[in-house]
# Entry
Amino acid sequence: MFDKILIANRGEIALRVLRAAKELGIATVAVHSTADADAMHVRLADESVCIGPPVARDSYLNMPSLIAACEITGADAVHPGYGFLSENARFADMLAAHNITFIGPKAEHIRIMGDKIEAKRTARRLGIPCVPGSDGGVTEDAEALRIAREIGFPVIIKAAAGGGGRGMKVARGEDDIVVALQTARTEAKAAFGDDAVYIEKYLEKPRHIEIQVLGDGKGHAIHLGERDCSLQRRHQKVWEEGPSPALNASMRAEIGDVCAKAMQELQYIGAGTIEFLYEDGKFYFIEMNTRIQVEHPVTEMITGIDLVNEQIRIAAGAELSIKQSDIVLEGHAIECRVNAEHPSTFRPSPGRIQSFHTPGGLGVRVDSAAYQGYMIPPHYDSLVGKLIVHGRTRNECLMRLRRSLDEFVVDGIDTTLPLFRTLVRNQDIQNGQYDIHWLEKFLATGGMD
Ligand code: ADP
# Structure
């Protein structure tokens, strides 16, 4: 096992990793920018190192600073959390060159899945069903038109290097395709420094359903059920739940087995998520994330398995401690991402939290690095905390979520808490009847006015 883990992240996920490390008896090193000097992850870690100025490029994304921090403190492993360097194969390679373990998959797998064209090719080879579309990248107008005609409009043009819901353009008919292709390429170049794009069928009313996997790279891989992340705004997840209201046990077992077998064949190491769109009883692979995800607590609440603990143990060379038959899904869990944003305009609202009171009680978990008097810096994402609630049934979970949201107090800044208080009382949500466009439509038709 590792002696000391450096956590190359901030906010609630830095705390989440720190907690898992402490429970394993491993010493922790926090890193921080000058803007985060009094952040909670710095206070709770055994040691801390300042790695640069507020702007992430010069601190949390600064690889030489992070390696130097490992060397100064003698850390023998790095947990990247999510975001920042978590899916950066070069960082994984660089750590390996310094004999420091990257707590995550092989650099090779990060590379494959980071290029969405390559990821789809790999998924197809492994027998995972994919969204119909181009086999590779598309550059020419005529080629784009040919493929779009073949698969049928509407189509979506997506950046190969895409992420965070950016770099996607929908073309509804032949007149749109040339502009959509050019805009997608220009935006992809600006956002990711890579103008490679591909085309796939645009699904009109799918749900976003993702499968959590764990592999030990030693021939074992399992799945831990699904999370339904269909409630999105600008392709960003807002509310996640598991199990999905749209699946039954046999559908779950079927797609789960496909994913577990694929990961076994790939000899995948660590935690990962295989994302699908789900429409009319069919699954279509869209991408794989080779890291722990924001919404991982949903799975932890219904399986009782500590995913970060598993990541650390597997990275240290242990075999998977659990078999597929050990995974039993119990009850229902919902996660709300509470952001420092206005609940209807979504304008960011950085600033000082005047009072902070989190809900509690049976089945209630709050993952947050905020506290009373905490100043939310404007430099990073706007997540204030995640409220995750578990119940024996979906209905019990919804009732518990409703009272937990009513207990939650964050004063001094705007948050999205009022949005969730409205959602939890909405009939469609209560019935589990929503697709990936539901929330945008709800907001556009004045749901929050
Ligand atoms: P990112 O890596 O930017 O998150 P994804 O490929 O995971 O991109 O897609 C993010 C979201 O965009 C999906 O959850 C879905 O809402 C939407 N989306 C992606 N591909 C399609 C598609 N083929 N049809 C309809 N919606 C899509």
The chain has a mean pLDDT of 97. The first strand starts at residue 4 and ends at 7. The two ends are 53 Å apart (CA to CA).
